[in-house]
Design brief:
The protein is built from 14 helices and 8 strands. By secondary structure, it is of the alpha/beta class. Strands 3-2-1-4-5-6-7-8 form an 8-stranded mixed sheet, with helices on both faces. The longest helix is centred in the last third of the chain and has 25 residues. It is globular, with a radius of gyration of 22 Å.
Length: about 350
C-alpha cells in the first residue's frame, strides 16, 4: 500500500477478549449512507485485526460494496486504522487508482469499527482473521469465533504459512474454515491462495473463491495443504538458488536481482513458468522433448539448502544498502515506489488482459 498504510504498525499479539462494543462512527458521521443504488450485498464482512493486512482487506471488501466491521481489542487502534484507511482511499481516488464502482466516501461509509467480537459478527457471512502470525494467538481467536458463529459463516485466516490442520484443530465449525492467504500489498497484488483444512467443505472453498472474485482478487485453489502453500514454496526455491549463486561468487547481489527484475520477472508478470515453457516451443510436449534433459542436468548441480551464514548475510546486506539504505525513511520511500510501480502494472495488466 502507500505510505499511509505502511506507516502504522501491526496489532500487538496481546490476549484478545471481548470488550464493550464502541463502533467508531466519528469518522463516518458526515459520510453519505449507502442508498439503494449502492446497497451492500447480502451479509457483511468482519475483519479481525486492524493492522496493515486487516486494513487492506477492509478496503478491498468495501470496494466490492460489502459492509465491513473492523474489530480490534484496542479502541485507539480501530480509530487509527479508520483514519489511515480514509487517507489512503482519498489518495487512491485522487490518483485514479481506487478500486470498485463506488466513490471513496461511499466506500468509507461501509466501514465501521467495533470492539466487541460477539456484536461484530452479528449478521456477517465472512470473517477474515488478520492477527499476527502466531499459531497460539490465531487458535485462540478461532476458538472464540467458533463459539459464537452459526453454521453459515465462513471462518477465514490470512495466515501465510500456518497449516489449516494446525490452525483449525478441534473446531466445531471446521467445515467452514479456510486459509485465504493474500500477497502483500494485497490492494495491488490480487493473488489469494485458498488452502483448505482436510475437513473443509467444498461449498466453503466455492463461496470463498466467488467472494474473492467479487472484490477483484485472483483466487487460486490449493487442493490440499502443504508447508509454505504454493507461493512461498516457489519464492523460497528462487531465494535458495539466488543465495547460493551469490554466496558462491557466481554473480553479485545486485546483478542477481536484475536477472529477475529485467529478465524472468518481465514475462512472469503476465504469464507463469508453465505457460512460458508452452510458448517457448511448439507447445509443452515440444518444449519437454527439447529441453528436459538439459533441465535435469542443471538441477543436479544445485547445492544443499543454504545456511544463510552471517558472513553472507552481511555481504548481501551491504550490497542492498548501497542501493537502498536500511533506515526507516529510505525503506519506506522505496516501498512507496514499489507500490506505485505495482499500481501501474496492475492497470496495464487490466488493459492488456486477453478476452
Amino acid at each position: 500500500m502507500g505510505a499511509a498504510l505502511r506507516g502504522a504498525g501491526k496489532p500487538t499479539a496481546k490476549q484478545w477478549s471481548a470488550a464493550k462494543c464502541r463502533c467508531t462512527l466519528s469518522l463516518c458521521s458526515q459520510r453519505p449512507r449507502p442508498d439503494s443504488a449502492m446497497a451492500s450485498p447480502a451479509g457483511g464482512v468482519v475483519i479481525v485485526g486492524s493492522g496493515l493486512i486487516g486494513r487492506s482487506w477492509a478496503m478491498l471488501f468495501a470496494s466490492g460494496g460489502f459492509k465491513v466491521k473492523l474489530y480490534d481489542i484496542e479502541q485507539q487502534q480501530i480509530t487509527n486504522a479508520l483514519e489511515t484507511i480514509r487517507k489512503e482511499m482519498k489518495w487512491l481516488e485522487q490518483s485514479g487508482s481506487l478500486k470498485g464502482s463506488l466513490s471513496a466516501e461511499q466506500q468509507l461509509s461501509l466501514i465501521s469499527g467495533c470492539g466487541n467480537l460477539a456484536e461484530a459478527v452479528e449478521g456477517t457471512m465472512h470473517i477474515q482473521e488478520c492477527v499476527p502470525e502466531n499459531l497460539e494467538l490465531k487458535k485462540k481467536i478461532f476458538a472464540q469465533l467458533d463459539r459464537i458463529v452459526d453454521d453459515r459463516v465462513i471462518l477465514s485466516s490470512s495466515s501465510s504459512c500456518l497449516l489449516p490442520s494446525k490452525l483449525f484443530v478441534g473446531l466445531a465449525h471446521v467445515k467452514q474454515c479456510i486459509v485465504a492467504h493474500p500477497v502483500n500489498p494485497p490492494y495491488y497484488v490480487p493473488l489469494v491462495e485458498l488452502v483448505p483444512h482436510p475437513e473443509t467443505a467444498p461449498a466453503t472453498m466455492d463461496r470463498t473463491h466467488a467472494l474473492m472474485r467479487k472484490i477483484g482478487q485472483t483466487p487460486v485453489r490449493v487442493l490440499r495443504e502443504i508447508e509454505g502453500f504454493v507461493l512461498n514454496r516457489l519464492q523460497y526455491a528462487i531465494i535458495s538458488e539466488a543465495w547460493r549463486l551469490v554466496e558462491e561468487g557466481i554473480v553479485s547481489a545486485n546483478d542477481l536481482d536484475l536477472v529477475m527484475s529485467d529478465g524472468l520477472g518481465m514475462r512472469y508478470a503476465f504469464i507463469g513458468p508453465l505457460e512460458t515453457m508452452h510458448l517457448n516451443a511448439e507447445g509443452m510436449v515440444s518444449y519437454c522433448d527439447r529441453y528436459c534433459e538439459g533441465i535435469k542436468h542443471v538441477l543436479k548441480t544445485f547445492g544443499p539448502i543454504p545456511e544463510f551464514s552471517r558472513t553472507t548475510v552481511e555481504k548481501v546486506n551491504q550490497d542492498m544498502c548501497m542501493k537502498v539504505p536500511d533506515d526507516p525513511g529510505h525503506l519506506d520511500a522505496r516501498r512507496q515506489w514499489r507500490d506505485d510501480c505495482l499500481m501501474r502494472l496492475a492497470q496495464l495488466k487490466r488493459q492488456v488482459q486477453p478476452q
